TrEMBL record:
<keyword id="KW-0175">Coiled coil</keyword>
<protein>
    <recommendedName>
        <fullName>DUF58 domain-containing protein</fullName>
    </recommendedName>
</protein>
<feature type="coiled-coil region">
    <location>
        <begin position="224"/>
        <end position="259"/>
    </location>
</feature>
<feature type="domain" description="DUF58">
    <location>
        <begin position="50"/>
        <end position="249"/>
    </location>
</feature>
<dbReference type="Pfam" id="PF01882">
    <property type="entry name" value="DUF58"/>
</dbReference>
<dbReference type="InterPro" id="IPR002881">
    <property type="entry name" value="DUF58"/>
</dbReference>
Length: 291
């Protein structure tokens, strides 16, 4: 007898979802490829590219001691894939991302996973390496990596209400994409972005929101509860909260924009009832600008 039937059911549910997710992501990626010319780039592979000065976080094993001895300074012998061809994705899987206000509007998690996988497909087809933040799925190339990303995006389950960005194990001078509603503690976002920026990582912040979270169309008696019921607030006059809520939302967006500007990243907000093709095209161009 299995000791973990609930875990097995979750795994089976995730497995049944990732082929449709992959098919949708490939179709979406093709809409961008049809309108964009392939990038011309020489030297794909792990060939030597250039030297750069040692940075905080580099290990001693990365130092080229022959070059360093000639110049009197410490240099790292950097390969091409370490410079321009590694992209790290962090896709928030916290409970708040499962919210959707109407049946005909997809959950935020669905849109986030679709966009992340479509971006990965575009970048991998261009010869780049894509992986997930943390240490479980490092950046790699090839169709096999696309399948692994599809599985990984769906099989994890977060017990917290709100997620915190992950910036571990990012290679220096690479790129990253963080996708979330960013409703959690802002200090966690700051810490992750500063940590990434210290390693020369540039990237994109994509805030995904449900249209109800953008407009706050509530009135009368209402109970507002987080997805894991860890936070709850009851009111008889929800409409009186609208102004304060919208101000806090704008403050959070402004803080994300400022953080992106300080760290050399880019920021945009996407609503789940907006065209997904437009969001992917913006992301694709933003990731290109970050090279």
């Amino acid at each position: 007898m299995s000791a973990h039937p609930q875990l097995r059911r979750r795994a089976e549910a995730a497995a049944s979802r990732f082929p449709p997710l992959l098919a949708r992501a490939e179709t979406l990626a093709n809409t961008v490829l049809l309108g964009e010319h392939g990038r011309q780039r020489s030297g794909l592979g792990d060939d030597f590219w250039q030297y750069r000065p040692v940075q905080a976080g580099d290990s001693y094993r990365m130092i080229d001691w022959r070059k360093s001895a000639k110049t009197g300074a410490q240099y790292v012998r950097q390969k091409e894939w370490q410079i321009a061809q590694s992209i790290t994705l962090w896709v928030d899987n916290a409970a708040s991302m499962s919210y959707h206000s109407q049946k005909d509007i997809v959950p935020k998690s669905d849109r986030a996973q679709l966009l992340a996988l479509a971006v990965a497909i575009l970048m991998i087809r261009a010869g780049e390496r894509v992986g997930l933040a943390g240490t479980t799925l490092p950046p790699r190339r090839g169709d096999g990596q696309i399948w692994r990303l599809s599985q990984a995006l769906l099989e994890t389950e977060e017990t917290r209400d709100y997620g915190a960005p992950e910036a571990r194990a990012m290679l220096p001078n690479t790129r990253a994409l963080f996708i979330s509603d960013f409703f959690g503690h802002f200090e966690d976002v700051e810490q992750a972005l500063y940590k990434a920026a210290d390693r020369g990582v540039r990237g994109v912040i994509l805030q995904v929101l449900d249209p109800a979270e953008e407009a706050f169309p509530f009135s009368g008696r209402a109970i507002f509860e987080s997805m894991k019921a860890q936070i709850s607030h009851e009111t008889r006059k929800a409409n009186e909260l609208q102004e304060a809520y919208l101000q806090r939302l704008q403050d959070r967006k402004a803080a994300l924009q400022k953080l992106a500007r300080i760290t050399g990243w880019q920021y945009t907000c996407h609503l789940t009832d907006a065209p997904v093709q437009s969001a992917l095209l913006w992301l694709y161009n933003a990731m290109e600008r970050g090279r």
